[in-house]
Every structure is written in C-alpha cells, then in structure tokens.
C-alpha cells in the first residue's frame, strides 16, 4: 500500500460490528480522507450523535478505496466472498471480520499484539480472527514467550452480541417477557420458565447452552474448531493441544474464558504477572483477596483484554489457570480490524 497522509476507507456492514468499526475509526483518529459506508440497502444511520449515509453496495462501490473493512456476517457467507475480489481489483486492501478466508494459506490471520509481521505478507486480504480466539491468543502470547505452551483447555462464556444485533434484542425481549409474565418467578411453582427462541437456537434469557455453531468432528462445534485452528495459525505452532467448549450465556456484551494451560517449563505466578503487565493490550486484574477479577460488566466498551484469577494447578506443577475477559465487539472484532489497518499504513 502506498503511504499517504490520509486514506479512503470503506466500512461494509452496519450491524453491531460495523457500527463499532465506525466508532473505532473516529475514536482512534484514523487518517480517513473519504469514508464510504456500504450495506445491502441505502439509508441513514446514527452512531454517537453522528449521521452516516449508507450506500447500497455494488460492483462500483470500491473505486478509489484504499482500505475496505468488512464487518462480517455471523452464520452465513459474508459479503466479502462476493465483493472482496472486486475491492482488491479496484486497488483496496481488504480486512475481513468474517470467517470465509481465515484458514486460507495465503491469507494472514492477525492479532497485532501477537503476529503483527504477518500483515505484510497479504495478497489483498487480511483476516480478523474469531472473537473468542483473539482474546485467548492475546493473553497466552506473553506466557508462550516465557515457555512454550503444550496444552490448552478452554471454556468460553460468550455474550449474545457475538451472534449479532438480533440475538441481543432477543435476550432483552425474552427477559422482559419472562419478568412480565411471572412477576415473582421464585415463588412460582413452575420454575422452568421458557420462551420460544428465533435468533438463537435455544432460549438465552435465564439460561446457558453449550452450542455455538453446528456440530462437526468429534462432536465439537464449528466455533470450538475455530479456536483450535485459528490459534495454531496465529501462534505458528500446531503442536499445541487445544480443546474448547463454547457456551452462550445471557450477557449482552463481553466474552469470558476459563482457560487451563500446561507449559514446557514450570512458571511462577510472579513471572506471569510481570509478563502480562508488560504486554501490549493486556490489563492485569488479579487480586483475589480484594475480590478483584475481570467481569464483562466492567470490560464492556474498553479496548484491552483483561486477565485475572491466575493460579497454579494443585495437581500439575506445570499447569496454570487463567480467567480472560474482553469486549467481543471491540478487541474481538472492530478494534482488532482497525488495528490491522493501522499496521498497514505504518508500512
């Protein structure tokens, strides 16, 4: 990409991630010359008291665009499948938040705090990893640099917003429906209060369910395999044994992860604290005596990946437990994409 003072940028998609991309570009003062906002239909949207004119996307939308940020679509082929080749032909570099290109050999999969140099090996497309993968590798990488990691067992607790705007609306509507119909659910003899889901496969209000995506090899879901394969690619180490269980929880914003790791050499908690405190994009919140640890309610709207509850496994001297929380719409999606764009323009 030719270095300029400012760049023509296109944001494709105006769901929750697309809106966050617009916020990140503004808040981080990205050097935008001309901004295009593209979606399936034209309309005006309002983000942070600013109106954006959305244009209906077409084959001619990318003329003069330097960087195209595709917000991605959950659960279906994203717009990048159709329009990324057109954008590249027009001279743009595509940064795609969807899953369509992540595992292609020629497409870099980038978390800037972990593998920033991979950005410069792109052939027109750079992929943003899955939200749960981003916060995992961001937290593991400082530890990996102390000692290679042999084993990772992770349970993710993923917010409704990871499934899009409709899932968040469904969470709120189900909560409202249940509370209105059952003024005092605890006193009600019918404790199994149910609603009919539509945006999500199961009821999300007052519930959790261990399925994100469809079931594939060894009865692991597509989301769980994303964590495995994407982490291998980003960290350039396919020897790490990774197993995941991905759970949807009734939180509107912010993914949490309970993570067990085994390292090649025994590490002290002091070593790990120091490594995380000095790591870019990481905020250490680990004071169990004072009951201080990361929570989605505290991390929503913040850029960092938060790590706490760091403790040695009592039965495995090279085993450690971590608790990781991050805003899935920011570092897990929009912010990471804009950080990739920032790396590009520094080239």
Summarize the structure.
29% of the residues lie in helices and 24% in strands.
Give a verbal description of the structure.
By secondary structure, the chain is of the alpha/beta class. It is 29% helix and 24% strand. It contains nine helices and 13 strands. It has helices spanning 16-27, 79-89, 112-115, 131-144, 165-181, 222-235, 269-277, 296-299, 330-346; strands at residues 7-12, 32-39, 43-47, 50-56, 67-70, 93-96, 125-127, 149-158, 241-248, 255-263, 282-284, 305-312, 319-326. It has a seven-stranded mixed sheet with strand order 3-4-2-1-5-6-7, sandwiched between helices. Strands 9-8-10-13-12-11 form a six-stranded mixed sheet. Strand 6 (93-96), helix 3 (112-115) and strand 7 form a beta-alpha-beta unit. 44% of the residues are buried.
- Which band does the percent of strand residues land in? 15-25%
How far apart lie the N and C ends?
8 Å
- Taking all Cα atoms into account, the compactness measure Rg is 21 Å
Q: Which parts are unreliable, with pLDDT below 50 for 5 consecutive residues or more? A: none
Work out the helix count.
9
Trace the largest sheet across and list its strands: 3-4-2-1-5-6-7
What's the rounded overall pLDDT mean?
94
The helix fraction, in percent, is 25-40%
Described by the principal axes of the CA atoms, the overall outline is: globular
Biggest sheet features:
7 strands, mixed
Q: What is the SS-derived class?
A: alpha/beta
Q: Note the run of SSEs as H and E.
A: EHEEEEHEHEHEHHEEHEHEEH
């Amino acid at each position: 990409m030719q270095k300029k003072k400012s760049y023509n940028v296109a944001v494709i998609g105006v769901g929750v991630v697309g809106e966050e991309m617009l916020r990140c570009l503004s808040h981080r003062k990205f050097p935008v010359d001309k901004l295009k906002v593209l979606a399936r239909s034209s309309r005006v949207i309002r983000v942070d008291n600013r109106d954006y004119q959305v244009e209906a996307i077409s084959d001619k939308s990318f003329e003069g665009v330097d960087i195209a940020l595709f917000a991605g679509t959950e659960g279906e082929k994203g717009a990048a499948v159709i329009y990324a080749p057109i954008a590249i032909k027009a001279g743009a570099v595509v940064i795609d938040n969807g899953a369509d290109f992540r595992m292609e050999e020629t497409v870099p999969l980038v978390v800037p705090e972990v593998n920033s140099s991979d950005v410069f090996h792109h052939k027109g497309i750079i992929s943003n990893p899955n939200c749960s993968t981003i916060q995992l590798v961001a937290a593991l990488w400082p530890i990996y640099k102390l000692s290679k990691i042999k084993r990772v067992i992770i349970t993710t607790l993923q917010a409704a917003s990871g499934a899009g705007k409709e899932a968040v609306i469904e969470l709120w509507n189900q909560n409202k429906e249940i509370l209105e119909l059952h003024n005092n659910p605890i006193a009600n003899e019918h404790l199994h209060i149910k609603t009919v889901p539509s945006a999500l496969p199961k009821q999300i209000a007052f519930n959790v369910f261990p399925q994100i995506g469809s079931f594939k090899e060894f009865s692991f879901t597509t989301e769980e395999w994303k964590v495995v394969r994407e982490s291998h690619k980003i960290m350039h180490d396919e020897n790490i044994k990774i197993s995941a269980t991905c759970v949807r929880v009734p939180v509107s914003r912010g993914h949490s992860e309970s993570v067990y790791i085994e390292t090649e050499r025994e590490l002290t908690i002091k070593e790990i604290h120091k490594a995380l405190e000095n790591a870019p994009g990481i905020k250490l919140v680990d004071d169990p005596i004072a009951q201080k640890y990361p929570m989605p309610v505290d991390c929503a709207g913040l850029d960092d990946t938060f790590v706490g509850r760091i403790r040695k496994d009592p039965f495995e001297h090279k085993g450690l437990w971590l608790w990781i929380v991050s805003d899935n719409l920011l570092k897990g999606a929009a912010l990471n994409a804009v950080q990739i764009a920032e790396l590009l323009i520094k080239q």
